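chain below, 113 aa
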Amino acid sequence: MTTVTTVRSVSYSCLMETAEEPSLAAIRIEAVLAALDHPLRLRVVRTLAARGEMTCQELLPDITKSTASHHWGVLRRSGLVAQRREGRYLHLTLRRDDLDHRFPGLLDAVVHG
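prediction:
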């Protein structure tokens, strides 16, 4: 009999480097709303709105790497978040200015729910 043990790693750079964030003109309301239609991603957006830039490790320390990577990719491709690398960590920030320009009032409605 073989026993399999799963270990959660908390020291990961959870964003896919290949996930491109769209330009301001390419951000689509359908993609933004679809990204916000998941409780985990909504929690991330609200947290970033309240606290500003954070590492993925700070945002979702209790989520497995593969699950976190999936959610970061959705958020990034939708245009909700941007990332920057600092050493081995990727920092996330809400694209508030871009989103407020493209869809005035949307983020405020989402954040203050």
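Residues 1-13 have pLDDT under 50 and may be disordered. The radius of gyration is 15 Å.
thats it, cya
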